[in-house]
Amino acid sequence: MTPRTIPNASDAPRWLQTLQYTLNPLEYMDQAAARCGDLFNAPVIGKHAQVLFVSHPKAIQTIFSRDTQEFIAPPNQLLQPIVGDYSVFGLAGQRHRRERKLLMPPFHRDHIGHYGELIVDLTNNVLEPLTPGDSFIARGLVQEISIEVILRVVFGLHAGQRFDQLKALLMEFSDRIQNPLFISALFIPALQKNWGKVTPWGYLKTLQQQISQLLHAEIQDRRQQRAHSQDILSLLMAAQDEDGQPMSAEELHDELLTLLLAGHEATTNAIAWALYWVHRTPRVLEKLKFELETEGNGLTPMALTQLPYLTAVCNEVLRISSIAFLSFPREVATPITLMDFNLQPGTRVYACIYLTHHRPDLYPEPDEFRPERFLERKYSMSEFLPFGGGMRRCIGDVLAQFEIKLILAQILSQYDLSLASPTPEHPKRRGVNVAPASGVKMILQGTIK
């Protein structure tokens, strides 16, 4: 069979495509898929001549299953200026395998269950000040819960000066990364100029330095205290590699920064989308509340998050409003044929999560919010991939899903909410994720006794 020519996402010049993708990634991908189909060249990330977006499940399965063979996972240079040189995002080869092996145990399901009651308590603490009739922005409220969870679960921090400082800085940092100039700087390194706090990139770097100082201070204090605890920082500090070496202060710092920024932002957006979709779809809200009321009472937090309809609802949220729209990049190491296209070494390849999750052949009527689809069939890891796949699948996926389900269940079990406006919510790029544009405006109607 004659090899096919890889189609281009657009005939526009590279700089214009990068701008289009930066400002409105979903529209860019939709138009490219309509023009090209399951695989196309989208030169919008980095300087590689070919940057392929792939949305066919069989091709994605090949990419993920051939990690370390025809494909390798290069460092993610896009996020390196934010999370540092020692983050698992920016490592490759043996260094990546060592770091990932050290990071994985604290995120095992056996450890995650210990955090359930704490997450429930933190959710209640944030929601308690609300009274019937109050209006609020769901994303802002959930952001506060998520930051509290990260600081307590990841750091084991309690109320105090460092806790308050980190919380304030993280919320400020999270808000700043939605600035279009910052987003552009991620994709156009020439814009990463630190000209002081008056410029978007300079101000962001100032915030980053202040966060880093607090992280290093906490790491140093923990090492001096030598206390044993179940928070993730303590578990990471106790971890040792095969040579008996622990993680360095620099490695701990960069991994904590990664967890703080990537983990917090993703779960915040997912829960905000969940509140939007279930309240926009009354039958789903009614069915979910019935399950929580009849089957959820008395369950442990871990057992609660295993409820089938709650799980289906959260999976459908992660499908229809994909928080990450691309997997971690792969690079072709040796020539390989993928979907009748000959790929040469140096080609960058991304599994396109967003386009895969909106394939009509996988998900009929993909723009309809219908959790039942996840009860009717089981999707493979190349068909439903909200956290990526292969050796670069998100390490924190279990904690993220646990947190999303538990916070959503707790809110719906305790409060009657409604959307403040019938106007549909639209997705908007927020850093490297996609968030609801208005944050989801809601009204508290009453509490559930």
Structure description:
The chain has one domain: Cytochrome p450 (Orthogonal Bundle), CATH 1.10.630. The chain has 19 helices and 12 strands. The protein has helices at 14-23, 25-36, 57-65, 80-83, 93-103, 109-112, 116-127, 138-154, 161-176, 180-187, 200-225, 232-238, 249-280, 282-295, 301-304, 308-320, 353-357, 373-376, 397-414; strands at 39-41, 51-54, 71-72, 135-137, 330-332, 336-338, 341-343, 348-351, 415-419, 427-430, 433-436, 441-447. The protein has a 5-stranded mixed sheet with strand order 1-2-8-5-3, with helices on both faces. A 3-stranded antiparallel sheet has the order 4-12-9. A hairpin with a 2-residue loop joins strand 6 (336-338) and strand 7. It starts with 13 loop residues before the first helix and ends with a strand. The mean pLDDT is 87.
Provide the descriptors you would attach to this structure in a database record.
Cytochrome p450; five-stranded mixed β-sheet; alpha+beta; 449 residues; single chain; three-stranded antiparallel β-sheet
